[in-house]
């Protein structure tokens, strides 16, 4: 079953390459066919309910309590094939989209090229992703390349209503709003798929819920579908399971494990978002603070680098000797959490593991210690252990709780232990651009691939395409790549246009 | 006249030590005594109208439009000697105060000592500062030391209403709310000073407006006043002018130029707030961005260090060869703004000068360039030059304007050229704690000084007190100071307890 | 043929994973059997003649011109089965060995364990490596584990005579001195192998010359040899060629590509040695210098990080878009060499490529520009193009040449374009310790492996052994590794003792 | 007496501004007039015997034991008015001078200007400084400006013999060699001063020994002398004492306390030389090392920044709360030496104090700990306490001693506790250039000053000249200074050409 059981699969960290998913015994096709609202709610992917913040949401103070499903709205062209919060927010949303366009140079470059050829002409894409300004740029790029799109949200909290409005105003069939119920969630997905006279031939998914829905409800649709592009760890894992079970009916592209995503999302994004997330929630001064970072994978490396640079004193915990030795060489004291827990001002988890910060640790922390999670869904801090009668919880700001011990000691818990970077900071558009471009290229590749190039399996993008995505992002930095001379290329045994790295390079 | 003319006196930068205030020709005592609301509005200090943001204000969504002056409120003890927005917000405000207390260890230490002696017993302090959680900690510390306090805001925008409520609930006579009119501003100050049966004997001022008001309205009060403690550059400048003109009636302490403030406020605060201010307003990714920082004084040094650490490529402009050479040795290309203006992603001014970024520069910037000011009031960027018919202004978020050129180019202007760190980021409580502690110690010193120690002049705190303030902040870092042995002290010719630096050390 | 043709195989850089060795057409067994001295000199591996410096060699001022081959020496125990420069230098060499022991904690730990068991009892190891203090620690560790050792140098310049003396004094059969002729080189190797009554059963090689000699001269010896441990890129490449050609007679361990070597040698070593190499040769000040680093692989990353940290302004050139994007995100301007060549103070090559710095570039450099190579043998800078009549070469210090243009312009060329870190700086013992430990463990593994575990092929150490090597080095940093709980290990699907990384992790 | 008593006056650190020289009770004029060699040896300034290394000296292997005083040498022009080691080394020395010229752009710029005017025409300068390549550039610049020069060494070890030869070859009257006896030292000085038919009218001194000699032996010479330029702390202190005692006969320029020297020498030089000094002596790897830096003045700041950047974990000790708080904000744990002494890999003193590292500390250090001094002459580490019978000293390399405890523990003591940066690393020429330029400008100023501008007192260079020196060094970095517009200058109340800083700025 694609149920709750198989959801603690996460990315962001090296530990996870080895995950064996031992607990996942139920199979996909055993899922009961009749499900009420309650059982539906159990089948939604966990990533669909992660809380999520964005700059734009700060401005969203609409107090209209009517459900979008109960409203009838039309855009200025009279089109009403969408379901969103409020079409009147379109102007504001459009501005957010335009801001995002400036940081997504590669997609804009693809649009320019599309003026000549339309590589997605005829494509009917059904998508299910976060509905944000960045997604809007992707969607409008796919359209510029020739595709028709229908879209739902992959997360019940993450929709930027203004952006959804801007898309609807431009006559995209969007079905999404911030704060959907779980019933709404599946209703929206169904509205994307189940249309008279329109049948999708491509899927773009983030988390696998859309794919799952079609498998469950409209398995025949796969006859016309040419492929799936999936971004998330969770969704990719589901696809590999399907493939293993011989049930994958179409080729699928695993965008999550492309080099550009791995190399850039984790290290560079976290380097920026750890500072942003901590500041926005706590206004803490970094200078001189003693910080423990649990885990020295890419995420931990990014957090450590940023905090050290801002004058914090950083300690690292690790289980893997190789990463541990890197932490040492990079100038961090490698400790066990117990050794420094009493003196820590901030504790950050980046392990991909569970219960890294236990109640015992929390009991020993000093007054005012800030605790947050940059690594894994919501398992790293044993938040459940704090839900006991003797402790008082006090919500002091959005995403900030004080947990108060009987002696008055307060621990500052951020985002209730969920991902700080999703909940409390924004993600740089530029980094999202890398992933979005990879998605668009994967779409083009799958849609145009000659019969037989791809089988019913899960594929990684070839290294060369990773390199192409990277090269499309260089002009943003006014960066000038050097070209190999013929003589040099021969000497190195490389093609002048790449690929420059072996396929196993990560 | 203490009018608008003499307001472009600023701190934050080395340039300014030489400011000669050439434009200030009007004299203090020429001020007309009868002023209407309009002329009042011209006499308010500029710092009183700088925009100002704080975390707490995000949560302030009260839509009550009634003026506090028209409301009758009482706290839970039945006390009504205050005028604030809404006494019901006291609980939330109290929480903010408690959070601040944790980052203001020195004041809390002073409170502990005050349990034995009350060095401010009998002190009647009238204060005029920003009304924030940090100020509340100061005010309640002064009270713990024995003082009675009445307080108004020094800025019409900066009051945290919840904090004012928390103070009022604790029976402090606070007269302040966010969004005062200028008439309100002076009315509040007057309510602090003009009370039956209570006359202040100490002044704590930030900007000089309170001092000015007493000079103008109640000059006789100075007979009982033992001294003034002033924090701001503007206020200190006013005091020096009074002193020069022979009109200063009481001793005054210049807290602004204490070592701890200069050494910590500028460098360390700006190192943190430049990142925070840019992120909160624009969500910009720092990695790989080309940034020009104009001015390499302490503020510029802080900005450059933070941005370099986060992966930006930083260029510096300077007029002073010594700071220029420091920039070179620190690894920054020293350029003229013209040379790099076309390639800049972000331009930050930190000079204390005027028109450092001109319309000509703005015309040549590339699309999407972010422009902001960390240095001086609002003079560094020639914002006025952008108010021309061919340019369109578009407010895209709070404190963020797009200025749009006829060809579609957009410049992202933050805080309309006012101080980014005041307008768009929070200031670390810990750094404010240093200044607040200095204020408290200056209060104690002036109030207890024997007759004759201080004349009617402006004084700097002795180096030893600076060192004492610093030492009170070390425990926060669990930092352990080394003590000189007798032999070492003799060898160095120093007293074991300091001062360790010459008085001219800055 | 193991001749000059197959020597441009190098490590140190990502480019090189793709090298296809297109030029290598001659086969091993076509080598003529009778070779005179001259042809011998052509067959020596290039790494054997790289120049090499070490701290100890500074003190080596012995002017004795007699060839060691013509001397008869005995150590204090009367043993004379060695051939070195001067047995009297043993005390000094012993001190250097003792200093090295302190930075090689893992080998010392192995020795302690060896007091109980002797995993190399019966092993007769013939070795051919650099003869340095670090090698001495390795050799004496192998002996402590039970092995008998005979050793020659893999490089005609790199022997520390004092260390060789210290080994000889301890009755190790060492045949090596600094400044061997090529005839000496092979004579020494032969003296290790060709002994009456003693036949090696293990080979430890660095560059493949020893292996080659046995293949050529004593192929029957392989019947008793259990395996080869090879460290260098060159030697590993030779082994893979043998394997491919079906001519490898025994199992071989490829130590060069172990994770610990790749992850630590390149990045961390170069981070330190680039500064050291530049200072020792030129005393250049780093602050404010404009430096171009060609190549942003691990070596380039290390160089860039160090120079940026010391206040240099660093530009990067790259051919690979992915590394290029990393350089951008890390805060370096990505340029073509041509664009910045005129303003560069220092140019450093780290590409693994050839002719990266051409005569044209050299012609355009400014007076005093320093040029050096951290990447590849001696191909990266086109030094040959500087050997023209109009240019004057002036040797100003050891390893430092001024190349003087007709107009008086001088370029400062270091180590004649050979590897700066080998020629002009020392390599941190600690990093060598990682490799040496891996060699020792590979020895133990091969020697004790049950029949059939290893075939006649080239093997990489399993990830688990990499992790073991790393863990042995953690105590040096007083670093404390965290252990997974049973629950966590189950959750992650990992064994509590590792391996923690997939085998493809690099 | 200018004897040993007054020698612990040092620079490099803020502590020292307060030194009161309590022990110096003897007066200058009480010095006995007849002194034998032994008493002479006691009167030499301590800085004259500090050990000193330079790159060039590595190549100096001349074994000629004849005293230069016993040789008769002539240069190629037949001139023999000098006394140096070996005139044949002139070519090598000339090359070193030419290398230095490239990093001393300001002096070279002065030479160019001197082609028109000769501001030192008629000047007869007698100098006493380190005789290094950098000094040669200064001396030849003074000559280019019109002066005649005679020169001796201010330190018995620091002369680069090759450079002295190059100067002699160019007919400069130099009297200096490496390894002078103390008698030689004074003899050389006397040879500079006591010449028939030539009498100096300007003094350039470093340490005050030359000035002292003239005071003692030829007091009448001061009638013709127009001024003294003194660089060292020691010499400046002597001058202030003379001035205080009313015995200073001519104006003197204190170059030591010029802004450019203070701001650049300490921070930037030490940032580079700490790494260089440690590497050249110990080849230690910095990554992951635990380092204690005692003192967080400018020197300590430079050391900490460099080591942190290279991956060391740095702890700081301080006595002054203000510097302590800076260390905290900069991200260093502030500790007492006792707390971390057991875990330290490296201990560095930068305090200006005495006995900062005591025998007790040394007893508790772990095996292999490196101890060195970057701060003060040779007082900071209590080296004397290590000269006890139970400890064994072993000289392992030049400037490196192992001190061995009875249990076998070894401490690695560098330069016997004297200054590491003088003894074991080179000082960047560029930074010396700043001081040398200041000396040259001070010379010009004093020599050309109209009667009465300077009295018989000690002067600091005006801020404007500091700024001029800085500006002469900017072209090296291709740095472009911004100029104030008229409007801006007026606004700031500054002259467009500076000075830009108040005189009290340091």
From TrEMBL, chains A, B, C, D:
InterPro entries: Adenosylhomocyst_ase-like_sf, Adenosylhomocysteinase-like, Ado_hCys_hydrolase_NAD-bd, NAD(P)-bd_dom_sf, S-Ado-L-homoCys_hydrolase_CS. Binds 1 NAD(+) per subunit. Belongs to the adenosylhomocysteinase family. One of its GO terms (cellular component) is cytosol. It comes from the Eukaryota. It comes from Callorhinchus milii (Ghost shark). The gene is ahcyl2b. SUPFAM superfamilies: Formate/glycerate dehydrogenase catalytic domain-like, NAD(P)-binding Rossmann-fold domains. This is Adenosylhomocysteinase like 2. Keywords: NAD, One-carbon metabolism. Pfam families: AdoHcyase, AdoHcyase_NAD. Residues 31-82 are annotated as: Disordered. Residues 31-40 have a biased composition (Basic residues). CDD domains: SAHH. Substrate binds at residues 132, 206, 231, 261, 265. NAD(+) binds at residues 297-302, 318, 421. Its cofactor is NAD(+). Signal peptide: none annotated.
């Amino acid at each position: 079953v694609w149920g709750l059981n198989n959801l603690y699969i996460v990315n962001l960290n090296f530990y996870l390459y080895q995950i064996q998913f031992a607990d996942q015994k139920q199979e996909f096709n055993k899922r009961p066919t009749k499900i009420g609202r309650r059982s539906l709610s159990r089948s939604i992917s966990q990533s669909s309910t992660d809380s999520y913040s964005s700059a734009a949401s700060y401005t969203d103070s609409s107090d209209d309590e009517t459900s979008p499903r109960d409203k009838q709205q039309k855009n200025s062209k009279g089109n009403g094939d969408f379901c969103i919060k409020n079409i009147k927010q379109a102007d504001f949303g459009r501005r957010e989209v335009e801001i995002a366009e400036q940081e997504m140079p590669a997609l804009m470059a693809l649009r320019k090229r599309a003026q000549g050829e339309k590589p997605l002409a005829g494509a009917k894409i059904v998508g299910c992703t976060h509905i944000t300004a960045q997604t809007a740029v992707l969607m409008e790029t796919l359209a510029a390349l020739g595709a028709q799109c229908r879209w739902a949200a992959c997360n019940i909290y993450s929709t930027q209503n203004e952006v959804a409005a801007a898309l609807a105003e431009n006559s995209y069939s969007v079905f999404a709003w911030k704060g959907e119920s779980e019933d709404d969630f599946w209703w929206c997905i169904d509205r994307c798929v189940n249309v008279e006279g329109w049948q999708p031939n491509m899927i773009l998914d983030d988390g696998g819920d859309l794919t799952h829905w079609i498998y469950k409800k409209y398995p025949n649709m796969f006859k016309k579908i040419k492929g799936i592009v999936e971004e998330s760890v969770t969704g990719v894992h589901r696809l590999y399971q399907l493939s293993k079970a011989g049930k994958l009916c179409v080729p699928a592209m695993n965008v999550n494990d492309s080099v550009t995503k791995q190399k850039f999302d984790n290290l560079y994004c976290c380097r920026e978002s750890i500072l942003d997330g901590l500041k926005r929630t706590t206004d803490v001064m970094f200078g001189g603070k003693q910080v423990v970072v649990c885990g020295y994978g890419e995420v931990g490396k990014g957090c450590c680098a940023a905090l050290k640079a801002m004058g914090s004193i950083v300690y690292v915990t690790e289980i893997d000797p190789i990463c541990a030795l890197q932490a040492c060489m990079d100038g961090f004291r490698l400790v066990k959490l117990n050794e420094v827990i009493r003196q820590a001002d901030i504790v950050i988890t980046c392990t991909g593991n569970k219960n890294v910060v236990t109640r015992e640790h929390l009991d020993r922390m000093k007054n005012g210690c800030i605790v947050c999670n940059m690594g894994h869904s919501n398992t790293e801090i044993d938040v459940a252990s704090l839900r006991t009668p003797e402790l008082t919880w006090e919500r002091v700001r959005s995403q900030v709780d004080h947990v108060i011990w009987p002696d008055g000691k307060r621990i500052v818990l951020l985002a209730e232990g969920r991902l700080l970077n999703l909940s409390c900071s924004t993600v740089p558009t530029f980094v999202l651009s890398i992933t979005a471009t990879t998605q668009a290229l994967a779409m083009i590749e799958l849609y145009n691939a000659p019969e037989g190039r791809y089988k019913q399996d899960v594929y990684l993008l070839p290294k060369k395409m990773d390199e192409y995505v990277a090269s499309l992002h260089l002009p943003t930095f006014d960066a000038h790549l050097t070209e190999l001379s013929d003589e040099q290329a021969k000497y190195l045994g490389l093609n002048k246009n790449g690929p420059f790295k072996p396929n196993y390079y990560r």
